[in-house]
Prior knowledge:
The protein is an alpha/beta fold.
Amino acid sequence: MPVKQAEFLISNSEPDKCPAPDRPEYAFIGRSNVGKSSLINMLTGRSSLAKISGKPGKTQLINHFIIDNEWYLVDLPGYGYAQVSKSDREKFAGLIDGYLTSRPNLLCIFVLVDARIAPQKKDLDFMSNLGERGLPFVIVFTKTEKHSPTKLQNTLDTYRAKLLEEWEEAPQFFVTSAITAAGREDILSFIRPLNEG
Ligand code: GDP
């Protein structure tokens, strides 16, 4: 079932100013330029809910959206841009950390990775950190229409093998494309039952 209503609520730089944690919440995060804005627009069926920018490092705030008056979708700042200063990177890391530790209603974190790029230390470190803190996450592969099925399968297998070096089980994977809308129903069908608790 497609999203009926999607509205922007608030952007902020302080986790304690986020909306009251009165609905299930799902956060989307990934390295800058991974395709996060495109994925959010694709999922919600809105062409410009989240800003799509060719310029890395634009989304530096915690952005809350309310979906179907039922759940919060959160667009988190991209991590790991090379272009910003170390002190800014630390500031974003602190912001993300503050957010992740202050939302009792956060049911799942969608960690986006570009299917065209080999597993990166920054992404794996971020996932390790979530796992160590017991925060539930899944992996969303973006831009997958750029790959042949064989190449895509290789990417998924490489990721799985990398994750299994550290964990007994790999998190759930979603294969998506903002161009073809692949993965939309998979992600929305995953979210709905969690909402029902
Ligand atoms: P963000 O910085 O993570 O929010 O990434 P954007 O959504 O702004 O996308 C970054 C770039 O990747 C843009 O040029 C998008 O057009 C492109 N892009 C995003 N999603 C896809 C996709 O599914 N397939 C392809 N081929 N390009 C994509």
